Amino acid sequence: MQFGIFSVGELAPDPRAGRMPTEHERILAMTTLAVRAEEAGLDVFATGEHHNPPYVCSSPATLLAYVAARTRRLILSTATTLITTNDPVRVAEEYALLQHLAGGRLDLITGRGNTPDVYPWFGQDLRQTGALARENYALLHRLWRETDVDWRGRSRARLDGFTSTPRPLDGVPPFVWHAAVHSAETAERAAYYGDGFFADNLVAPVEHYARLVELYRSRYAEHGHGAPEQAIVGLGGQLFVRARSQDALSEFRPYFHRSPAWAGHWSLEECTARTPLTVGSPDEAIEKILGFREAYGHCQRQLFAVDHAGIPLKTALEQIDILGEHIVPVLRRELAATCPPTVPPAPCHPAAAEPPTAADHPAPAVRATADRPAAAATRTAAPSPAAPAQHRTGV
Q1: What is the DSSP letter of 305?
Q2: Tens of pLDDT, residues 50-89
Q3: Using alpha carbons only, how large is the chain's radius of gyration in Å?
């Protein structure tokens, strides 16, 4: 199972210190978190895509390319790529190029986003969101697997004999996860193509996302990709941990009340009891995350938000260190001991499965810290819907 962090990159004041970071500071902080995630032994860093304030990452491909040059084995992902308003031709080209630069260490989480205003900004109609998602992903899927593509659709200009360049690395497209908070249609699309399904589980009760995962697993099997337990499932969530649970709750409470995702729904205690939000001691975090197996089955990826709602860089880095030292090693051991042999490990591009050499990416000479962001660190370096079969499994 892959473990990692994701950042939506929102710009928010620290409710404890009262200071608002600049856009420049926030962007560099995200890259610092990615570098620290690799140093801590985590597997994945993912970043969201937004085109409106208060968010700072409007171009995930640019940020991930920067991170790719400073890491050696970290898998890079979007969270999410807007499949509705992005041109699928540009998505195919930009992320195939990034896949080459990252040596295969790239996948995508696609979704429809949560900002209605973005549709008219990019010349699309919000009322057509479902149709846009279906049509654009169908084209993207073909562009990575076929050459000389002829295309007629409603969302973009026609294509006649078009071949996107560059082609995916070694002919293996980036693995795609389809993310949803509410959409059964998204779960169906992931199942139809044999792609992964990412339960973007942040704010709703665990059982809500469990129903989407169950739907995806059953439809994955009905579409002939394998048994339900062989479907590829990823989970999101937010985590805040201290040595003592009471300290974690006390320190996190101002951020909880500052968050637009949580404010006005439940109390902090209710959220930690009912939703995937994890706040407490390392042992409590381990127990809760292991408990997700009962709701979702055995999964292939777990990502945590550690910098949401104004949490400062220093604190977010501490969360990554706690994950790497006290939580993830235990989770790996416990999950491996109970995982049935029929459950596939996480998807991985064949090139990324090869251990990098020092000649490929020299090791970083300077560790990224809250005081020294990644920017100052020494540089390191025939189609089928069942595309995941082309990927190796495991990290």
Answers
A1: E
A2: 999 999 999 999 999 999 999 999 999 999 899 999 999 9
A3: 20
Three-class SS of 43-72? CEEEECCCCCCCECCCCHHHHHHHHHCCCC
How far from the centroid of its chain's Cα atoms is residue 384's Cα? Answer: 24
Residue 104 φ/ψ region, left for φ over 0, alpha for ψ in the -120 to 50 degree band, beta for the rest: left
Residues paired with residue 370 on neighbouring β-strands, in sequence order: none
CA distances from residue 165 to 82, 105, 145 in whole angstroms, order as listed: 20, 18, 12
| Banded model confidence at residue 391, pLDDT cuts 50, 70, 90 | low
Tell me how far apart the alpha carbons of residues 296 and 284 are, in angstroms, rounded to a whole number: 19
For 374, residues 6+ apart whose C-beta sits below 8 A from its C-beta are: 28, 31, 32, 34, 35, 67, 70, 368
Confidence (pTM) = 0.89
Which two three-digit tokens encode residue 148? Answer: 């000389």
C-beta pairs of 149-157 under 8 Å, 24+ apart in sequence = 155/124, 155/128, 155/131, 156/87, 156/88, 156/89
Q: Token match 């062989």: residue?
A: 230
Helices 206-222 and 184-193, axial angle in degrees (round to 10): 30
What pLDDT was estimated at residue 381? 32
Residue pair 350/103 in contact by the 8 Å Cβ criterion: no
pLDDT in tens, 35-45: 999 999 999 99
Q: Token match 């050696």: residue?
A: 72
Residue 380, token pair as written in the block: 């390191």
How many C-beta neighbours within 10 Å does residue 389 have?
12
Q: Which residues is 5 bridged to in the sheet?
A: 45, 304
Listed in sequence order, the DSSP H helices in the chain are 23-39, 60-68, 88-101, 118-121, 129-143, 184-193, 206-222, 245-258, 268-274, 282-296, 313-322, 328-338, 350-353
Count the alpha carbons within 13 Å of 390 in the hemisphere toward its beta carbon. Answer: 22
